[in-house]
Amino acid sequence: MPVYEYEHSHRGEKSCGQGGIFEVKQSIHDAPLTQCPQCKAAVRRILSAPFISCQKGNSELRDLGFTKLVKRDDGVYENVTRRSGESRYMHRDKPETIPHLHKTISD
What we know:
Layout: E1 3-8, E2 21-25, E3 43-46, H1 58-63, E4 69-73, E5 76-79, E6 89-91
Antiparallel strand pairs: 1-2, 1-3, 4-5, 5-6
């Protein structure tokens, strides 16, 4: 359910605990509020910045120090963020194929 921001019509009005601007969870189909639910003063809905989440690509994850393993078979994982010197596939029974985490993790 979206969260909408409302502002008391008279800026700085603090007749309730909401203060000047407050948030309300409402259905997109609900009519906008016209009065504060606590103090009943007039309010108006204001525009706010939307939350936009962008997924990071494998190279961005690698540059940020993450290691991403994708399961390919039973006990076999592909290291899609491999760095130079690392194996493309990690096998459960072959410790030499495990990513070099000491290169990316520091104190």
